[in-house]
Design brief:
about 190 residues, mainly alpha, about 75% helix
Amino acid sequence: MSILLWVPVVSAAVALIGLILAWTTHNRLVELGTRADEAWSDVTVQLKRRADLIPNLVESVKGAAAHEQATLTQVVAARSALLQATGQGPRAAAVAEGEFADALRSLLAVAESHPDIKTNHNFLALQHELVNTEDKIQAARRLYNGSARNLNIKLRAFPSNIFAGLFHFHGREFFEVADRAGLEDPAAISF
């Protein structure tokens, strides 16, 4: 058999392999992107869940610590900023999360200094729910960052990086909150 007869067969095989590679890479990138988006959605749900606890927490503290109006106002403003930032992506949410954590620490410090608040059953139930929610936020954050990492690795690895550029895929930012001391170990707060 002549070599000229093999050229179209080899060319067709190479084209078919390239097409299969592009197809599978595209589908894998779609899967990883969807998982990262789903994980980010879980983070925003947990952040909103915690933010929804704050008005009740503020009300519990408000009566006993009326002179702490500036702290209460700061917490409400930080809550509002966090809710807005969750729709703007991980970087904006991380900044708002840091400000919210600072405001929440201030509120918990106010509650710590008032014995009647520390023994209030509603406040204790809200505090317990807040600790539970913090744990869920950490789990959702780890899941999102793992999903973002997997997608980002795939986008940079050869040969998927070639197809990622052709198909206009982009990486995801990590959700990294600076200085969450005091909230990462909520059990350390005793009421």
